[in-house]
């Protein structure tokens, strides 16, 4: 019969050998792979957490690569913008040269030819055969989603506005000139009535002013500048107030009247010649703030207040039937033909005075809308109706063959340059944002990898110690097994002897 104690020792030794061998194998695997978790059974919760972290790590890594791809596109777009600005600046120099009074018509035609060549170059660089330009600066690169990771909150929409020739230029809007008359002595009250609210909006920036009785275009501009004007300026909106009225001779003779409170007089020749009256008016321009310019026929002259103040003519007198027709002007053109609002006549026994309210012009590189609340009568507000949208003049329309066209081209070019510069500035800001995102995602990736390594990574010192301990336990168990087997063998030998 075999000793039960020896048999039990053998079983214990076998179990110890199995356990020690498993521990040794696990430690050896961890030392080989460098990871604490090599199969799901090693740490069920840890495996799940590590898998989520690994997904985040790969998503962040792809997000960083996506940023690099977008950065390449944005860098190309910025290069195109920079080249476009160089061309526009060269055109502006030509426009200023053409506007110079010493140039003749032939010289201006030559300058205009150079400008048209630059326009062709601009068109080729922003359209033509440039595939990158057609994609990046034609407006089709709109709301492109930059994916930074998984989820709607981990994306960024990027747009590049068109800078192609038909899309850049000058937007213009403005108020309407008007006038009011009086049949008595003294100055006529200005046509603008109080109460309405006047608003200007461009690129989401708004300025507003409450109208006051007799307000001038200059006063409107000042109020807008003090109540949102900085925002408008940031949006590239330019405010220019000017008051102009055309005086046309209807009958010859002597006349006297007051211009902005200053007495003037003149003689209208038999053929309606206003040369004498123009000279008398300009002699008082330092006091009135108004200049007079005679047209080529000498039968009409234009009074201009370049600051946009109201122009008042009062106490008109003529002993021999001289008469003057007044026409309010907007940018040098007739404001309209409505009698009593845009036109009227000064004559003895009729209208003895008039007050003219000028035009506030608004220029910019984006759409400019004008809104006026509260209904006002015709000529009693700065615009007729509630809403007025701007008109657009494309850069492609510039013509430097005349001095007037050259000066207009300078303004159009200024706003075209502002449009392209704004686009380039946005590209720079976006690139800075992408650089910041790259750094942030890089830090996030490092933290995620550290967390993943903490969960999955093996403590090498601990595993070496554990491996050594397992080897000792295995050796001890093997020795125990050998001893147990030896005792049983000796006992059997005794029985057989």
TrEMBL record:
Pfam family, one: Flagellin_N
InterPro entries xref list: Flagellin (IPR001492), Flagellin_C (IPR046358), Flagellin_C_sub2 (IPR042187), Flagellin_N (IPR001029)
One GO CC annotation: bacterial-type flagellum
Residues covered by the Flagellin N-terminal domain: 11-127
GO molecular function: structural molecule activity
Alphabetical keyword list: Bacterial flagellum, Secreted
Coiled-coil region list: none
Highest taxon listed in the record's lineage: Bacteria
Subcellular location, principal: secreted
Domain Flagellin C-terminal: 411-495
Magnesium among keywords: no
Subcellular location: Secreted; Bacterial flagellum
Protein purpose: Flagellin is the subunit protein which polymerizes to form the filaments of bacterial flagella.
Protein family (similarity comment): Belongs to the bacterial flagellin family.
Protein name: Flagellin
Organism: Donghicola mangrovi
């Amino acid at each position: 019969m075999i000793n039960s104690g020896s048999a039990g020792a053998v079983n214990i030794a076998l179990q110890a050998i199995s356990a020690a061998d498993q521990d040794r194998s696990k430690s050896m695997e961890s030392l080989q792979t460098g990871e604490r978790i090599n199969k799901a059974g090693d740490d069920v919760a840890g495996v799940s957490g590590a898998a989520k972290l690994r997904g985040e790590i790969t998503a962040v890594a792809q997000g960083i690569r996506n940023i690099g791809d977008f950065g390449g596109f944005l860098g190309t777009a910025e290069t195109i913008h920079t080249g476009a600005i160089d061309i526009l600046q060269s055109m502006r120099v030509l426009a200023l040269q053409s506007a110079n009074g010493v140039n003749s018509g032939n010289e201006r035609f030559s300058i205009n030819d150079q400008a048209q060549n630059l326009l062709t170059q601009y068109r080729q660089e922003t359209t033509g055969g440039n595939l990158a330009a057609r994609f990046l600066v034609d407006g089709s690169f709109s709301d492109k989603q930059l994916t930074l990771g998984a989820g709607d909150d981990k994306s960024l929409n990027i747009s590049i506005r068109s800078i192609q020739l038909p899309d850049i230029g000058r937007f213009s809007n403005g108020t309407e000139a008007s006038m009011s008359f009086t049949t008595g002595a003294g100055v006529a009250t200005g046509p603008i009535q109080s109460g309405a609210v006047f608003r200007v909006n461009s690129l989401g920036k708004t300025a507003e002013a409450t109208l006051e009785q007799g307000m001038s275009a200059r006063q409107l501009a000042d109020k807008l500048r003090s109540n949102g004007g900085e925002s408008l300026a940031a949006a590239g909106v330019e405010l220019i107030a000017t008051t102009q009225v055309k005086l046309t001779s209807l009958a010859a003779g002597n006349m006297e009247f007051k211009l902005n409170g200053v007495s003037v007089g003149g003689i209208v020749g038999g053929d309606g010649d206003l040369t004498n009256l123009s000279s008398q008016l300009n002699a008082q321009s330092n006091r009135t703030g108004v200049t007079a310019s005679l047209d080529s026929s000498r039968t009409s002259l234009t009074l201009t207040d370049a600051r946009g103040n109201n122009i008042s003519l009062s106490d008109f007198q003529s002993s021999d039937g001289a008469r003057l027709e007044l026409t309010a002007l907007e940018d040098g053109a007739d404001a309209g033909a409505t009698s009593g609002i845009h036109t009227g006549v000064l004559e003895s026994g009729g209208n003895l005075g008039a007050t003219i309210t000028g035009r506030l012009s608004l220029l910019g590189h984006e759409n400019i809308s004008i809104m006026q609340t509260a209904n006002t009568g015709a000529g009693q507000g700065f615009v007729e109706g509630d809403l007025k949208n701007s008109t657009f003049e494309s850069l492609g329309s510039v013509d430097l063959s005349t001095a007037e066209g050259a000066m207009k081209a300078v303004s159009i070019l200024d706003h075209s340059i502002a449009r392209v510069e704004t686009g380039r500035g946005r590209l720079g800001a976006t690139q800075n944002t992408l650089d910041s995102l790259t750094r942030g995602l890089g830090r996030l990736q490092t933290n995620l990898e550290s967390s993943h390594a903490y969960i999955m990574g093996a403590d090498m010192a601990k595993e070496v110690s554990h491996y050594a301990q397992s080897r000792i336990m295995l050796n001890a168990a093997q020795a125990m097994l050998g001893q147990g087997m030896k005792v049983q063998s000796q006992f059997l030998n005794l029985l057989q002897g």
